[in-house]
Amino acid sequence: MIRDNKLEQENRITKWIYHIIPFAVLFLLWEVLARVFHQPYILPPFSDVAASALSLSLADDLASTLGFSLLGLLITLLAGLPLGSIIQRSNKAKWALEPFIWFLLFAIGIGTTSLAPILILMFGLTQLSVLIQSIIVPILVVSLISGYGFTHLAIRLGFLLCLSFQFIGEMMFGTTMAGMGYQFSIFSDRHIVEMKYAIMLVMGFTGVFIDRVLLKYVGNLIQKKGSDCLGKSDF
User: Fold this and answer.
1) What's the mean pLDDT in 192-215?
2) Residues of 39-67 as b/e, b for ≥16 C-beta within 10 angstroms?
3) pLDDT computed for residue 72 by the predictor
4) Using alpha carbons only, how large is the chain's radius of gyration in Å?
5) Would 231 be classed as within a structural domain?
6) Total count of domains within the chain
7) pTM for the full model?
8) C-alpha span between 33 and 187 (Å, rounded)
9) Is residue 197 within 8 Å of residue 188, measured between CB atoms?
């Protein structure tokens, strides 16, 4: 038992090392390139960006962006997974819905910003407009991928899209006055490059944390449920 625990601990340490190596290489390369080319208005040094990220006091904005992203993911899964299940189980539904969903993805995905005036007219410059804008494409993507049988991948990509579209929506609907996207647009207007990269850094690590902790747990539940279903089907 002690030996098994020791091996498990060593495996965890090894996994963490492998997780850290790509980040270390990326950030070291970033620092070197920034120092060599010395173009702080294009690529500031990683050390300056990291210092700016540590100095940010955007807890409320991060909580707002994450909260609405997770709410959008919940709505996306409630709408997209049942549609994907229908596509997966019925060839007729697949033949009818798959080309239609791809059409909507190409049409709406390319013209997402065109929806902004319509949503503003209907719901005003509110978080509701941002939320609706952030779930349309994710619902279509989740339904397609889960329809191919990759439910956990659909959930992970759904969160990525909800977070991305929420961020973009906060930038477009600036008068919501909240969220990381809104702060990013302010720093962009003021040409504070280190803060822009700092927000990108914070969003990147936050997204990875949610994916590795929350969505990994969801994936384990899905695998367990799938194993239970297979076990029952043997009888």
Assistant:
1) 89
2) eeeebbbbebbbebbeebebeebbebbbe
3) 95
4) 21
5) no
6) 2
7) 0.84
8) 23
9) no
Instruction: Report DSSP letters for 174-234, one per residue.
Output: GGG--SHHHHHHHHHHTT-HHHHHHHHHHHHHHHHHHIIIIIHHHHHHHHHHHHHHHHHHT
65 and 32 belong to one structural domain: no
Write a three-state SS string for 102-115: HHHHHHHHHCHHHH
What tokens appear for 230 in the block?
A: 């297979």
Residue-wise pLDDT tens digits, 113-165: 677 778 888 887 788 888 888 999 999 999 999 999 898 899 999 999 999 99
Claim to verify: residue 60 and residue 169 sit in the same structural domain = yes
CA triple 52-57-58, angle to 5 deg: 105
Q: Is there a single domain that holds both residue 105 and residue 2? A: no
CA distance 165 to 31: 29
The pLDDT assigned to 211 comes to 85
User: In sequence order, what are the residues at sequence separation of 6 or more whose Cβ sits closer than 8 angstroms to the Cβ of residue 215?
Assistant: 152, 155, 156, 159
pLDDT tens for 168-196 read 888 887 656 778 999 999 998 888 899 99
CA angle 195, 196, 202 (to 5 degrees): 85
Residue with tokens 């279903």: 229
